[in-house]
Every structure is written in structure tokens, then in C-alpha cells.
User: Fold this.
Amino acid sequence: MEDIKLLETIEKYLTGEMSAQERELFETIRKNTPEIDQMVVEHNMFLQHMDIYANRRRFTKLTEKTFQHLFAAGEWTLDHTVPSKAKMIQLWNKYKKVAAIAASVGGFIALTTSAIIMYFSPSLNGNQLLQLSKAIEVIKKNQQVQGHLLNEVKSKVPENAKLISGGSGFLIDPKGFIITNAHVLKGNGAIVINNIGQELHASIIYADKDLDLALLKIVDEDFSAPAAIPFSIRKKMTDLGEEIFTLGYPRNDNDIVYGKGYLSAQTGYDGDSSTYQIQISANPGYSGAPLFNDKGEVIGIMSARQKLAEGVAFAIKSNKIIDLIASIKENDDKAEIKLKISKGGLSNTTNRKDQINIFKPYIFSVRSYN
Assistant:
């Protein structure tokens, strides 16, 4: 009985039937209770699927009604006799509005049916996740907004190179070593851009597709190495319900964006133990961005979001950075790399505005090219 009442409450929340006070109270409970948060996500998806089914039923009835009119008027027969050309024109003029509605609903049904198939088919489970890297189209759009910066300013992207993808990244060592997602680096070359819009040459040191992590190194004489990194990499698990925030580049390359949320599950999609599930708004461009806790520790690396569940995103656990470094050290070709992960120490404040201002110079937009 209690479960039924809880579902009724969740439905009132999702359909906007709660008062402002009730909604605020429920959101507090949802934030502090991961099980209820998950129920909200699942019930929201259930309601979406019910809407899809209802639309399909309406489309079927509309189609049946249209043909009943045709049969009754003698304008179409069961043996599909084709009316005369003049009759066909009359038929079109009479039913073109209904046909347009049916076509629109049919298109909607086709799209949503495809979405349902992708969702429920075990072989297509990966299609539920959307990587948060920027596509080339988004990068080009940003260039247009900024006045074709790559052409008008001396860019460090090679003249004949083609931009492939982009995302975010952050320093883990003062010597210029940057962590990002492997899927951000779809090309064989890269540059990074700091929070004041300065482009810097970067070398792709190592990429692990299984971990979906990659290491870059800034190799540019214009790079001013900091004395230390102000945040540390957390090695332990983070608690459920803990508030988190991220800084990345889902918009223009010199326009860093702040997002906040909370940790909603200690495993990722389909029980993936290498990632966290987080409740946060995440747009393309956040791939590779650091995920911080209130103490200013990096607890994860933003990587993907769930397509059919609003606000559900995933971050690779920060201890996987340690695994990546171990893999690099085991690689004979990279034996010359001397990398020491930051232990933090510059930032003892828990004031969010101060943390953001301190961290911004250490977070970069990443562009990959061929």
C-alpha cells in the first residue's frame, strides 16, 4: 500500500500537480534518497512510453476513420480500383488535411518506436548512452559565433587540418599533463584552450579505450607551468547524496560553464562499477571535465548521459586515473614520462565561488584534429 502511495506522489510530482511547497519538500527527499530518485527516473520513462502507446492508438483510429470515409463515399474500393485523375484531385483536396495529420503522427510514431526498440533491445543497450564530446558541427558553429577565430587569428591548429571532435580536460600535473576522455580524441592531433582563450599545442601521450581515459601533455613555449595544482584526486568511493559540481566547455572554447548536482548511485549504467551515476544537467562538450565534491577533490571525469532519462549522467571514477597512470608506466614506449599526480594544497576553502575562480585556469577546452 505504501508503494502505491509513493507512486501516486511521484506521478503528481512528474505531472506538475504538486503545490510549490510540496514540490520543494519532495525534491529534498528525492535528493537525499537515491532509491526514490531512481523510482522517479523509472516512472518518468514509464509515463513517456505510455504517451507513445496512446499516440499510436490515436494514429490507428485516425487511419481507420479515414478509410471508412473513403469506402462510404465510394472513393476507394477493396480491390484498390484507382479513381479517375479528376476524382483523385478532388479526393486529395478533400482529405489533404487529414493526410497531413496522419503523416505527422506517423512520423512521430516511427521515431518513437525506434527509440523504444533501442531502449529495450539488449544488443543495443549502448545506444541508451550519449557521449558528451562535441561533434565537428558544434565546433564549426562555435567558430562562426566567434567570428571564424581559427581563420582570423593565428591558430595553432595546422593549416590543412580538419577538426574532428572536442571536449574538456584538466591538469593533473604542473608540467602540463591533462586528463580527458579517450572518445574526445577522435583525431590524431590536439590543441587545448585555457579559460582566457589561449590556444596551446598538446601531444596525445596515451589513450585507453577500455577505461575511456586519455593523457595529453601541453608542449608549447607559451605555456606557463603553475607551481602546483589546487585540487587533489580522490582515491576512495564517494557517498550517495553527496553534492557535486563540474566545470567544462559545453559552449564556446573560452566560456567555461559551471554545473551542479549530486551523486545518485555508486555504480553507473547497467551496474558499471567503474563509473558513478550522477543527477546533473550535462551537455555535449562536458566529456573530460572534472567532477568535484565540496572539498575540492576530483571524484570523477564526466563522460556520458542517458538519452531517455533527463538529468541522468555518468562519470568515470577518479581512481581510474591511477589505473591509467599505472598502464602508462607499464608501457615501455612511455617509460620516459615522469608524472606525479597532484595532491592539492592550494585550496582549503569550501566556498563555491572561490573554488570556481581558483580552479578555472586548470581546466581546458580540448580540440582534436586530423
